[in-house]
Each structure stands twice: as C-alpha cells, then as structure tokens.
C-alpha cells in the first residue's frame, strides 16, 4: 500500500505526523483551546513547533489545563516554580506573557463575549482555502495576520507578532495551508464547511 502524500514539514517524526494528519488546519472554535494554541505559539517563538509539541502535555499540566482564571492569578512564586520546570520552555518573558495573555483573554471575554468569535472575525469570519503547490509559496504572514497581531497587542496580549499570529491561524484552521496534493487538503476543506455551522 502506497504512503499518502503529505505536506513535507512533518518529516518522519511520528508525533509530528500525527499532529499534521489529525489537528493542523482543523477549525477550532473553543475559547480555551484557542487560548492554549495562542500561548503555545508564543512559546514557540525562536524555536520549532515540534519542540513545543513534545512538551505540550507538560504545558497542560504546568498551566492547569490552560484554565485562564488560574493562569491569570499566577504570581511571582508561581513563575519561579515554572522556571524550574524542565518539561516546558523556561523563558521568563514567555511565561510572563502567558499570564498576561490569560488576563487579556478574561478582559476581552468580559467586554466582547466569545474569544472565538472575536478571533474568527479578525481572520475574516470563515476558513480561507488556499491552494499552494509548493511549500515556498506559503507566506510567513498575511495582512490578516498583521491585523490580528495589531488588535491583540491593542487588547494587551504579548508574543503575538504577525508571524506568530499566522502560525496560529494555520494551526486552528483559519486558513487551510495544506498543499493541494496533500491528502489532508480536501479533508480539511470539507471539515471547514461543516464546522462553520457550529459557530
């Protein structure tokens, strides 16, 4: 049986392949899940996504399941505990950004309601179906990502530059950036149509 054609970036790493085949590009509308991805994308800055992926379970444990209320309450003592946790990226600026992002998330949710609706509106309202044939065609960021970055910064979020925002948009299915010959391209496109009705 021949192997399915995939985007080249997962290589042969089983964890990366699993992520590519099941998660990447699938639309996410759950507020807490979106916050988790945003914090993890910020943690990725300057690193590879596989590094974060291998530590994701550790992050979920260290960050109380990405409960925004609990994270927003983290104090200096909690930061010291996190800085000693070898299971996560021990970068003080990134840890402080995660706490700030949880606080901004709560403030935004209190004033605008759904975090999901807010982000999806910034992304254009529905999943964008791109049609790339070569990995070199895939942009590092787009105007939509720039706009999302500007708005999130204005709302008090940290580590949300345009490149991080675009990587986030790819991960949570705001754009379908699977190459068109990848077996997941059509599957994700079909899921995108179905999931629009769940908003």
Secondary-structure topology with pairs:
Elements (H helix, E strand, L loop, with lengths): L13 H9 L8 H14 L4 H14 L5 H5 L3 H8 L8 H21 L2 H8 L5 E2 L13 H12 L7 H10 L3 E2 L6 H13 L4
Parallel strand pairs: 1-2
Structural class: mainly alpha
Number of strands: 2
Order of strands, widest sheet: 1-2
What proportion of the residues is helical, as a percent range? 55-70%
Strand content: under 5%
Global outline: globular
* Largest β sheet strand count, sense and barrel closure: 2 strands, parallel
Distance between the termini: 38 Å
Please give the radius of gyration in angstroms.
17 Å
Please work out how many helical segments DSSP would assign: 10
**Poorly predicted parts:** none
The topology string of helices and strands comes to HHHHHHHEHHEH
Average pLDDT confidence is 94
């Amino acid at each position: 049986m021949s192997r399915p054609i995939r985007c080249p970036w997962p290589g042969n790493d089983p964890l990366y392949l699993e992520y590519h085949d099941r998660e990447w590009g699938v639309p996410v509308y759950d507020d807490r899940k979106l916050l988790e991805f945003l914090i993890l994308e910020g943690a990725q800055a300057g690193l590879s996504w596989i590094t974060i992926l291998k530590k994701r379970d550790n992050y979920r444990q260290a960050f109380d399941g990405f409960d925004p209320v609990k994270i927003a309450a983290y104090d200096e003592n909690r930061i010291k505990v996190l800085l000693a946790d070898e299971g996560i990226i021990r970068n003080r600026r990134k840890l402080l950004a995660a706490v700030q992002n949880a606080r901004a998330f709560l403030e935004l949710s209190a004033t605008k309601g759904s975090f999901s609706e807010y982000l999806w509106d910034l992304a254009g309202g529905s999943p964008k179906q791109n049609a790339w044939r070569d990995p070199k065609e895939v942009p590092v960021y787009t105007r939509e990502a720039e706009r999302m970055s500007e708005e999130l910064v204005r709302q008090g979020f940290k580590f949300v530059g345009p490149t991080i925002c675009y990587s986030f948009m790819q991960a949570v299915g705001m754009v379908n950036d699977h190459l068109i010959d990848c077996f997941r391209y059509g599957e994700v496109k079909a899921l995108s149509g179905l999931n629009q009705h769940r908003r």
